[in-house]
Structure formats: C-alpha cells, structure tokens
Amino acid sequence: QVQLVESGGGLVQAGGSLRLSCAASGSIFIMGWYRQAPGKQRELVAQIIGGGSTNYADSVKGRFTISRDNAKNTVSLQMNSLKPEDTAVYYCTAVLNGFRSWGQGTQVTVSS
Length: 112
Prior knowledge:
0% of the residues lie in helices and 57% in strands. The protein has 112 residues and is mostly beta strands. The chain starts with a strand and ends with a strand.
C-alpha cells in the first residue's frame, strides 16, 4: 500500500491562492486530488498520469494546476482564484497496480 502525506491547505479569502502538496512513499503512475464538501460526495478535482497527461473537473479548469515531481514522488495542486464553493477536505490519491490509496485529507476553507 502506498503511503501519502499531504501538506498545505488552510483558510483563505475568496480570490486568494493556496498550494497543496503530497509526498508518496514510492513512484506512482497515477496521482491526483479529490475533495469532499460537507454533505456531498467525494469528487475528482485533478489527476496527472505518467509523463504529465492531466485532467480537471470543469469547476476548477483555468484556476487549478496539478503538477508532479517524479524524482521526489510528489504531486502538487496550485489553486488560484479560490471561491467559497471550493471549501472542502482535499485528499491526495494514488493508483498503483489497480489499488487506490488515500491521504489523510487536508482542510481548505475559502471565506467570502
């Protein structure tokens, strides 16, 4: 099982920026970020595959950027122009050999 350790998150005003980072215990082909707001299902935010193919939720396109450092086994999520509706617990995720692992989650709160 892959161990994932997240950092970043916190409280920011609408229009501000935050950066989330996640360190994996090994080299992972598929990494990404999901989020879960109170009373809602967990949803994909962004995903990066292998050499750099990415996909994003429509709600964050143009505002969030996912990137990875394969040498350090890390993935980051740069979040700009944050909105109150981005408030959620953000989870780092990795898929290895068909098994998905999750980080512990980090709270992002955007005040209006």
